[in-house]
Each structure stands twice: as C-alpha cells, then as structure tokens.
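ping. complex inputs:
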Amino acid sequence: MRLGTKIGLSVLILSGVAAVAVVVSLAVGTAPIGLLEVVKAFVSPDRVPPEVLTIVRSLRLPRVLMALAAGGALSVAGVVFQAILKNPLADPFILGVSSGAALGTVIGSLVISVPSYLGGALPAFAGALVTILIVFYVARIKERLYPNTMLLVGVIINAFFSAAIMAIVSLFRSNGLQGIFFWLMGDLSLVSMTEVAVVSAVFLVGSVVVFYYARPMNLLLFGEESAASGGVDVERTKRVLFVAASVMTAAVVSAAGVIGFVGLIIPHMIRMVLGPDHRVLIPTSILLGGTFLLVSDTVARTVVSPLELPVGVLTALLGAPFFVYLLRRQM
Amino acid sequence: MRIDRPLIAAVCAASMMLFGAASAPGTGYTLIDQAGRSVTVPADPARIISLAPNITEILFAVGAGDKIVGVSEYSNYPPDAAALPMVGTYIKPNLEAIISLSPDLVIGTADGEKRAEINRLASLGIPVYIINPRTIAGVISTVREIGRLTGREREGEATAAEMTKRIAAIKERLAALPPATVLLVLNTNPLITINDNTFQDEMIRTAGGRNIAAGESIRYPTLTYEEVVVRAPEVIIMTTMSPDEDYRSVTREWSRFPTVPAVKNGRIYVIDSDIIDRPSPRIVAGLEELARLLHPEAFGKVSGGTR
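pong. complex structure:
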C-alpha cells in the first residue's frame, strides 16, 4: 500500500470511530438524557430544558473535548519519548513531569494556599516546567542530551519529588488530601472550556512540530550516528522534540491530572498494527489515544454512577488486557 | 397608540434571558455565607441538595427534610435520608447528578477539596451556600441559620435552644470535677489523634476531658505508642466508622501497655464517630456519651469498656 493511502485510510477509519465515541459519550451519563435531546441541545438549544442544556454543553462537552485533546497529546508525547530515549518503556511521565506537577499542586494547595481564582492548574504547570528544566540542564553534557542520563535523571526526580510530596502530606495532614489523590489518578470531571482551549492549543502546536520531525524520527530509529549521516541535526531534533512533548504533557497534567497508560500503550498498539513509520504513527496515535481516553472517561463516569472512578484506573483496566492480546498475537 | 404585543413579548423574553431566574419578582435575596461568599438564595427554597452528612442531619432537624431532593454519600441519618437520591461523595460531588435534580439551593461545607466543584456549580447559576461550623457554638448558630435559610426559622430556634439547654445541663454536672486525661484514637495503625485545634478537642473539653495530644503542632498528629505510655491517659476512646470493626483485637493491642491507667483500669471505649466529629445536632448526644465515659461518677454506670 502506498504511504499516502495508508495514512489517509487509517486516519479516516480512526476518525469515524472517534466520531461515534463522541456521540455516545455525549448521550450517556448519570442523568438520563435521550440522544434526541442531546442533538437538540446543539441545534435548537431553546427547545430543551435548561438542566439538559447545562449538562450536555457545560459538563459533558468540555469533558469529551478534553479527553480527545489530552489522549492525543499524551499519545504523541509517548511516541516522542519512546523515539528519543530509545526505550520501549518510555511514557510521557518517565522524565518526572507528573511528579513535578503533583509537587506543584501539593505545595500550591497545602503550603502556600494559592487563591482559588488561579485554580489548581497554575502551580501544577509551574511544577512540571521546573522539572523539565532540571532534566534538561542535568542531562545535557557538553551540548549533548544523553538518553540514558535523561532516563536516570527522570527516575531520580520521580523518587525525590514523591518523597517530598509524602513529607509535605505527613506534615500537613488534612482531609483535603483525598482530592489530591483523586487528581493523581487523573480527573476530567471539572475541566472548563478555558482549559480545553489552552490544552487544545498546546496540543495542536506541539503535534504539528512533532509531525514536522517525523522523517528525522524515522532515521533516529537506526541510531544517532546513522541519522546524523542521513543529514539529521540529531541534537537539535532531540531538543525540539523533548520540549514539545514535555510542554504538552505539562499542559495535560495541570488540567486533567496524571492519566497513566495512554502514552505508553497507544504508540505500541499502532506500531504493532501499522508499523513504525512516524508519518503514520503520529496522526494515528493521536486519534486512537484521544478515542481511547474518551471511552475510558465515559466508562469511568457511568459505571458506578453517581459515583465516579478515577479515569487512570480505567485506562489501565481497559488498556492492559487489550495490549497483552496484541502482544501475544504478534509473537 | 397600537401596542405591538409580539414585540413586548419578545422584549420580555429577551430580558428574562438576560437577567435569568434571579430577577423573577420577589423570590430571592442576597446574603454572605460562612465562607464569606455572596450568594443569592431563593426566599423559600423547595428543592435543596445537601453536600455533606451533617447538613442533611441539620436539614431534617429543622423540619426541612421534605425539601431535600438529593444528598451526599454517607448521609445515613436520620434513616429517611438514606432513601434520597445520592449526588456523589462528600469529597467529590457529581455535578451532573446535582444539575439533573434542578435544585434551587445547594448547601455545602467549606472543608474537603470541593472548592473547584462549588465554584463550577455557582458559575452554572446554582446558588451554593457554604457552612463552616468549627465549634460547638458554631454548630448551634448554623442550625439557626439553616432554619432561616429554609423557611423553618421557628424549628431552627427550637432545635438550637434544646441543644443549648442539654449542653448547659452537662456542664452543670461536671462543674466541680477535675478533667480526666484522654487519648482520642482516630486511627490505630498508625496511631492518629487530634490536637487542640480540632472540633473533637472542644467536644472532649466540654465533656470534662483533657486531650493528652492537645499541644501538638499538627491538627491530626501521629503519636508513637511510647509517647502514649509517657503521657499515661486515664481514658482511651476510639472512634469508629463501623461499629462492627474488630474491637476485641484492637483492645488486645493496648494490653501490651499495662502501665497506662486506661489499660490498667479497663477504661478503653469505642464511640460512634458520627456523633462526635460530624457537626450536627447529634453532637449533644455525643457530648452526653463522652461525659458518661469520662465521668461515670457523675453520670452513673458505664456499660461496655474493657472491664
């Protein structure tokens, strides 16, 4: 199959699946609202009760859009980290961005009590950015980023920040902490349209940048030396990709918490089915990742309604068995 | 002059949309809630949602139970409350469930990590009134406040007066007695207790006790068992979420420290945490129970305990 056809066909099919998931997700939830009412909430909003309007347009719609953007961003970040770290276990949080964001949130809410109008997103984003800077400067030796050093720095930062979080939590024991633990497992229940707009913008810009580097990433698969001999500015590529993927991850974590598993398994799933070419891998991972997170979040908010499961629980529960199935089939 | 009726209707409809339900004639007023927020509440709310078990109890106590359309999880008292639709947990209210019940008033508490949820509800046009009782006096005034808020002012006053009277009676009986030293156990492993900056500490003081961890700097400090042996409480009270928790095995743990007066004298008790740490009218029952456990000499024989 020609490359263009392969991209076009897989993007078309995955977009169709995503569209179905969006409609279903808008139509199900704690409140029983028929599909017809949901459609009317968009096409003729003055003909549905105000509660329906609020639920569909102010609660469900931002969640659906955020799931698509966050799932897409995490997946493309996973693709990047697996490529530049040359490690199949890499995921968007492997360099410590999530624990940096968590530490930012814990400090923001327990130690310095950030005023509520700033929301929880800012301290989380600040924490994530600080972590990225630390990794970047520690792992950069003589103008070069060494993948193994980056991995080690990430592991150390994760350990250190987790310990710092536990220390603060022990000193400031309060009953507000359950909220933080919910957040640590990922939570899309409160996202607003503003957050959706910010995350989507970061995600779109980041994805375009990453896609622009699809060919150099393909060459990196054969090692840094051969990529360099193929005309790739290896250090520049790694630097740009690292920043793009990290900032996307930071944006997602600050708005939606730490949603595990998506960024790890989606790129692998696509590779197993469609192969390792990044020109295919990047757009299809974005679509599949967005759909997967949307389905997980929909299940998370309906399966034990009116209670809710953390979405990270669902991504692992749904994703792991399917991943193992693909892994076995491939052997 | 010919009046264009469709035009007037359109203008009315447009202004209704602009100003929303709040401007409907004479149905609402604005006040400051206990979190310092300005809230416009309806004059006679008919569809109330309670976001915490103690709010549910207060609403029933002031006779507004029939106006409740939804409650948080663990709203287990009075028994009627358990039959109401649940709108999520105390920690995490479910916004969709709340909105689908079309409430005209939501009452929540200031603690828990619900600030984001509450701001969201308010921004969607649902009045959310926050209560924040931190003291026994605060609970009593909150009962009055919720009475006024729900058009049950007289019942609120009566409940508050009854609470005040029963507390005064407890204090009177305890007046001449020295306080008993007490360790309140919230969690056994690790051993978590309270300092004096908590509601439970005031409960203990009012019931004639002196908290051995009052001076700790953290509200819910973790104590070592060694420290308990040193501070030697006369009474140990364990709060429990579920009465069928394995009480025997927990008290057996304490038998390793026979020098502690509470262990030596068999004065280890279990108390239902709902009546001592839930700021509701039932704290009076909690105070009576605590006073009986701490000062059996003034309140008669105690049933239960380790001996």
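Residues 1-26 of chain B have pLDDT under 50 and may be disordered.
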